Amino acid sequence: MSNNSSIAKQAFEQGEGILRLAPNWVPRSFCVPGRRIKLHPDDYYALGGERGGIDERWFSSTTPADNGPLTGEIEGLSEVIFEHNGTTERILLKEAVSELKGELLGDRIWDEYESWPMYSKFFDNKGALPHHVHHRDEHAKLTGQNGKPEAYYFPPQVNNHGGDFPYTFFGLNPGTTKEQVLECLKNFTEGDNKITNLSSAQRLQPGTGWNVPPGLLHAPGSLCTYEPQKASDVFAMYQSLVGDAIVPEELLWKDTPEDRVGNYQHLIDVLDWDLNVDPNLQEKCFMDPKPVKPVDQMETEGYVEKWICYKSEAFSAKELTVLPGESVVIEDAAAYGMIMMQGHGKMGVWDIETPSLIRFDQLTHDEYFVSEKAAAEGVKIVNHSQTDPIVMLKHFGPNNPDLNL
């Protein structure tokens, strides 16, 4: 490594095309932590009660969190860790992307987006969230943002309990009218606007997932959720009361242009109406994992890999299991971020491990970003345990060339 090269370049060379990332904790003032993301019990309110509890950890993020006027300067932004000669330096993944460009992301992603256009996270809430929507591009651009498709997967490793309400409302009941929804929105400040009376809840099952296109109302349940999504934090809350908690009216109008605040018809227009009332919504959006190859063949080779998020063009995700005592080389056609869920061993030049407990300011060896070149050449993963599998989740950018289901 040259002393004259940048931290990004040195970190890239040190990891042979794989960057080590620091844990990236994000609070939400309107949430109560479910305490399943391995943060130390003393640290769930490490940023102070005014900021709310930490119930999210963001992965491979170049997207700032939108948490109002108290948001930290780099809140939501992942950091690259470079340790050398007893010193530790950090730079933002966003800065590394801007410098390394296609060398990190691959020319296909860099030439089209000139950025890393997705991120993933753990969402870990004790209760359910309000019925809300992420805007489509046409409505998000009115406030200078991107629309946000997202997807859910419920990892068994972080779902030892289901929280208060492990059911998610998706969309609206077939036959619901726009007038019924308008009435609920106009009653937002009257207590319970009862919008979930117009919807149906699905019981959430660990080891499965859901695709959530922009414009689709959804009230996420209380399982700890792995969420790949487009690089945006745009949303609006359409439900006024969840449990015993009142939702502030300002969140109803969040990401609405100033000249349309108070225009309830605009809130209806934000919805993808046909999708919300589609009687086949479950068939379109539910995701059972799909093996990338025949399972028997993969097991013979020492691993099992499954697509877990595969119904969006904006991102995709896999679950990789390396069997106990095995050494494998895994090839992918695209750059990806990853988070360890179980086990320990080696990945390329790096140690990988799954901590049971993490302090707020502690560094770990459980999260990395793999360049396209390293992914295509094949990443060697060695499981050092004779009994415990390695399990990792891998999140990819748009239009993954390997996704041919």
Automatic annotation (TrEMBL):
Alphabetized Gene3D superfamilies for the sequence: Jelly Rolls
InterPro entries cross-referenced by the UniProt entry: RmlC-like_jellyroll (IPR014710), RmlC_Cupin_sf (IPR011051)
Lineage: Bacteria, Pseudomonadati, Balneolota, Balneolia, Balneolales
Protein name: Mannose-6-phosphate isomerase, class I
